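Run log, item B.
One chain of 288 residues. Sequence copied directly from the ordering sheet:
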Amino acid sequence: MTDSTAQAAPREKPGFRASGRLALRGMQMAVATVLLTLIGPFGTFTDLTLPWRGLYWAVAMLCGFTILEPVIYRVLHLAFRRNWHWPSALALSILAAAVPLTAAILALESVMRQPPGWGIVSAATYYCYVLTLTVVVGGVPTAWELYRHGVLTPRLPEPPRQAEADERTPGTPGAPAAPGARLLNRLSPERRGEILALSMEDHYVRVFTGAGESLVLLRLSDAMAEVQDVPGLQIHRSHWVASSAVDRVERLAEGRLRVHLVNGLALPVSRTFARAVREVGLGKGDRS
């Protein structure tokens, strides 16, 4: 997903896009299952009839999804926090996920085909088979997704601590750090500007600034912690807005609120945060 400018047509963004990810993964699993059923690699073409071969690969793909996805994103979150090399972190996650997945495939083999030998050589052979499919079915799509989101690069270094000290101590020589500098430092230089809003999208946070928008692999709570020096308010479990970026607050027919930002973005206010929005008087006025 490429960056786009913030001056887009008004829209209301969904707060959590897990459904989109699950739909994409489901489609990938279905395509992989059909192809593997037709090709019948690793002896499944001769050992299993077409219906049983389809069941075999459907179960194998389901095991791969339930094991690979959590492992990959757990490792990638650690990579982000510890500034690891992204391709290396992805490779590590695939190598690690292939271990429990191999155990699952060995169990599947015992049920649907002849029980495999349980020696080291046999287990290593199955691990190589599983690793090959894991790279093709899971690793390549994940790498492409990370590339589209622009996170296949190491995290930029944190702002110098001296800049933070300068900001806290009036009169200290040196330019003070910009509001939200810790979060801005994670963005590419062309996307750094006044922070307008944060929106959670699955494993990422979309950062809206005066210079555009970018995705960072970060939890919303962590992103909010890095913009504590920017006056603002969480309006939804998936959205935070800067006070200066709010143009108006709209009251919808069913009584809910919606915040309109100066860049044309419209974000929903959940009932949990509606009272706080009213108390701080965000925006230039409500419109019924």
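Observations after the first pass:
- Residues 1-19, 153-173 have pLDDT under 50 and may be disordered.
- The radius of gyration is 24 Å.
Flagged for discussion on Thursday.
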